[in-house]
Amino acid sequence: MRFGQIAQKWLVQAANRSVLLLLVGGLLFRSVVAFWLYPTFDEAYYYLYSLHLDWSYFDHPALVALTTGLGPLLTGDVSQFTIRLGALICYTGSLVLLYLTSLKLFSAQAAYLTLALATIAPIFPIGFGILSLPDSPLMLFWSAALYCAADEFFHPSPDEHQPNLYLSTYRLTILSILVGLACESKYHGFVLGFGLIGFCLTSHRHRRALLSPWAWLGIALFLLIISPTVFWNIQHDWVSLRFQSARAVPKNGYSLLSVALVCLAQVVYLFPTIGVPLWWLTLRATVESIR
After folding, report:
1. Is the peptide bond before 156 cis (omega within 30 degrees of 0)?
2. For residues 186 and 60, is the Cβ–Cβ distance under 8 A?
3. Are 208 and 164 in contact (CB under 8 A)?
4. What is the pLDDT of residue 129?
5. Do 199 and 265 lie in a common domain?
6. Residue 16 to residues 90, 91, 95, 109, 121: CA-CA distances in angstroms?
7. Are residues 30 and 122 located together in one domain of the fold?
8. Which DSSP letter does residue 2 get?
């Protein structure tokens, strides 16, 4: 069956048309904002990355230099829109992957809601899908890793007599590559890697994944992918790790006020589309559980 016939058959269903409308509408909206919004200081900083390519940089790995420089490279023009072209592409890919992951794990309704929330929650399209930041490639490879992990860890057992049997596949290697690319986008990618290892350690069914030849091949490729960042940091006295670790520890110690401000900030980041409803549902569920 030709691609055109497959696409036509897929679009016949109203739900699929809604998904496509949400994806295209969201991309058009983000493109208009990206065209008119003045560049931020951070974006100008990352554009300088793209003019001075290196294995890594003071505060971030190198992939943001590539995503920021993609638009000017393709168009030959430097503007607020072209430096954001990579972010627009990355976030559209992220939305597709989040939709497919939710569809695989849950249902078509849950997948559509996932896509809708990721499209309308302000912090997501702005921070990941409009501004050219390290979060854009991070989100893309994180979403791709989640899809790959869902495909690897939750596929049906090959033996109908042992429904809980898990056999590792080549997807473990692909998953390791995607985690490596997430780490090359932003250091937060290591959280994803540790989370996946923690999942395997705490899931009796999936512990054997850590002993799989596919996993060990993946680890080797992961180390190869992050080697440019490691190499650069060795040359520069681990300045990136020292800088990022210093930011993680407050100078004046921890305080309950800071915790409260962080919680409030979460509502502001998600306001008004889902921040207030999310907190309302959380509060209502808490009250009902107490009763």
Report:
1. no
2. yes
3. no
4. 94
5. no
6. 21, 19, 14, 11, 21
7. yes
8. -
Give this prediction's pTM.
0.88
Domain shared by 261 and 194, yes or no: no
132 and 24 part of one domain: yes
Alpha-helix residue ranges (DSSP H) falling in 52-84: 63-75
Q: Write phi, then psi, for 126 (nearest 5 degrees).
A: -75, -55
Q: What distances in angstroms separate CA 277 from CA 121, 267, 271, 272, 281, one per listed residue? A: 12, 9, 9, 9, 6
Question: Which residue has tokens 């896509």?
Answer: 115
The pLDDT, as a whole number, for residue 9 is 60
Q: Where in the sequence is the domain holding 276, given as residue range(s)? A: 250-291
Taking alpha carbons only, the member of 69, 89, 161, 72 closest to residue 130 is 89
pLDDT of residue 282: 81
- For residues 163 and 79, give the distance between their C-alpha atoms in angstroms, rounded to a whole number: 55
245 and 273 inside one domain: no
**CB distance 140 to 178 below 8 Å:** no
Contact 215, 172 (CB under 8 A): yes
76: left (phi over 0), alpha (psi -120 to 50) or beta: left
pLDDT over 80 (residue 18)? yes
Is residue 168 located within the same domain as residue 284? no
Q: What is d(CA 105, CA 152) in angstroms, rounded to the nearest whole number?
A: 12
Into how many domains does the chain fold? 2
Query: Mean of the pLDDT values across residues 239-244?
Result: 91
Eight-state DSSP code of residue 272: T
Residues 275 and 175 in one domain: no
Rounded Cα–Cα distance for residues 246 and 26 (Å):
37
d(CA 9, CA 247): 52
| Number of residues assigned to the chain | 291
What is the SS3 assignment for 61?
strand
Q: What is the pLDDT of residues 156-170, one digit of tens each?
A: 766 666 667 888 999
Do 159 and 195 lie in a common domain?
yes
